[in-house]
Amino acid sequence: IQSYDIESLYKGNSPIRFIGIDSTDRTLWIGSVSHLQSINNGVIKRYPHTKNQTLSSSYPRQMIKSADGEYWIASSWGIRKFNGKEFTYNSKEENEFSGMVYTVYQDSSNVLWMATTNGIWQYRNGSFLYLGDENILFSQPANHITAFNDRMLIASKGLGLIIIRDNKIHAITQKEGLLSNYINKIAMDSTTLWLATKNGISSVTFDKYNNPIIKNIDVSAGLPTNVINDICSYGNKIYAATPKGLCVFEKEQTNPKPIKSKTLITGIKINGKEMHTMQPNPTLEYSENYLTFDFVGFSYRKMGNINYQYRLLGVDSTWVNTVSTTSTYTGLNPKTYTFQVRAQCPDVCWCTPAEFSFTILPPFWQRTWFVILLALFFSGIMFLIYKIKVVSIRKRNQLINNLNTYKQQSLRQQMNPHFIFNTLNSIQLYILEKDTISSHKYLTKFAKLMRLILDNSQQPTIPLKDELEALKLYLELESMRLSGKFEYSIDVECDELLKQRVPTLLIQPFVENSIWHGIMLKPTQEGWVKITLKKVSDKVVCTVEDNGIGRQEAQLIRSKQDMERKSLGFKITVQRIELLNTLYKNKFLIKYLDLTTKDGEPNGTKVEITIPINFQDEQFTSTQTIF
């Protein structure tokens, strides 16, 4: 780096505030305290010449080319516009803006940005807009505004380099590696920003992740002083204006082989316990989700404070800046993570990150094998339930079919040929004896009984009233035919009981059994049959009691005689009740009691039939379909 003393270009004139070159016609513009001058092809002109067209006391600070071909001038009293011959706009004279403007910049939307003593302003569509109320970074004075690629840059007085990109605002400061947060000027080339500060020159480039890479130049590198008032990039050289003269150096001199720091991950704690072997890509249980990383950075050529940046891919979207050598993460969700950490020594670029990848497994009930196993288990359960249901439905259907079969058999037994034949013989006898009244009465009862039996057989259950009506007709016919061989009675506890529904053709076989296998085999005295119905809890108890010869005597007689009439109806009814018990879990009961005299002699039989109340009619109506 070489240093030069610069003499005044125009002795005796006012101090020069700025110089600039118009690239379109190569005109050099020079701004002094009270004059604006141009030099083109050796011809010097001074603007303006009239009293009203003067820069007196305006202290011009910068001049830029406007999008419409004119020029914007930043001054100590607002902004002015100059068309090359005269001033066309003066914000102070228009009473619109009179603050001190250090620098101006016009963006691609023709919005004029102004750096002032109280922060950043915009002049758009003829109006002035203060940005300091929107963001605190815009509330401080600034020395320079410009653009670099897709970024707006603001050289602030104390807040570092402010960058606006994609409507996001952030600052690069001494914390990230700048020599100073007070920036006087920004110069740039195609890849690098050159920042003039009061502590030297900072160069800034950006990596592919838009992270800044900062290198610094100060007196230790050859600058005559660290105070840099202005800076310019031209070709492969940098021009720096200092209180001790103009410094010129080639850019390559600032790009030696980078001195990189190194970073090591020195330890990892899982749930507070040290991980003894740092094997790559370990697999952790879901409860091992509290991790602490220890790391250290160093450089072989630089000493001093070390800055760190770390992030956990899968948690952090950006780098986290720190000077600590420890980072802790808690409550990590099950997935794969990569911890990255990098270090930066003073005046050294960021090193290549050290990495550590690991995977936290989900709990076993969230793992694929468990989900598959659970799905198979529940599928098996559902299939088993389905099979059990199918078997149950088939069994129920078979039971219902059997019930229907036994019901038809009961119907046939109640309409058995013997009963019909004997009844018709009795009617014929009454007719032959010309007993018209008795024959008519008998025939009417017989017809009504047949109709009731047929009607009742069409339904799985009927009201108890209908069952007893058919039973009464049967007893009346048998009593008439047997010429008063027995008496009978039917007692119902209450009329409400008559509404209860019972299986059809259920009681008559027990009454028939009492008559033909009890009373009719008794040689002496007349017999009797008592039918009693009462409600006990949620059941109807039907009692059929007779004074016949008893079950043991009847069984003995049947064994000695080849009886023509067999009690098939009784057996069928018993089988029906067994099927009903299968369907209703032993809710239907039959209880037998042998009656005796005081001397212990057989004196009839008592049968108790227990029928549940309110059992479902639809379970008898039809078989179920299996899909």
Helical segment count: 8
Count of beta strands: 40
The share of residues in extended strands comes to 35-45%
Mean pLDDT metric? 82
Identify the CATH class of the domain at 389-621.
Alpha Beta
Q: Based on the structure given, which CATH architecture of the domain at 389-621 is correct?
A: 2-Layer Sandwich
Major beta sheet, specifics?
5 strands, mixed
What would you report as the Rg, rounded to the nearest angstrom?
A: 58 Å
* Gross morphology: rod-shaped
**CATH topology category name of the domain at 389-621:** Heat Shock Protein 90
The side-by-side strand order for the widest beta sheet comes to: 27-33-32-29-30
Provide an overview of this structure.
- The protein has 627 residues and is of the alpha+beta class.
- Among the domains are: 262-365, Immunoglobulin-like; 389-621, Histidine kinase-like ATPase, C-terminal domain (Heat Shock Protein 90).
- It has eight helices and 40 strands.
- The strands form ten sheets. Strands 27-33-32-29-30 form a five-stranded mixed β-sheet, with no helix packed on it.
- A hairpin with a 4-residue loop joins β15 (151-156) and β16.
- α1 runs antiparallel to α7, α2 packs antiparallel against α3 (436-456) and α3 runs antiparallel to α4.
- The longest helix is centred in the middle third of the chain and has 47 residues, at 368-414.
- The relative contact order is 0.05.
- Mean pLDDT is 82; it is low at 1-13 and 617-627.
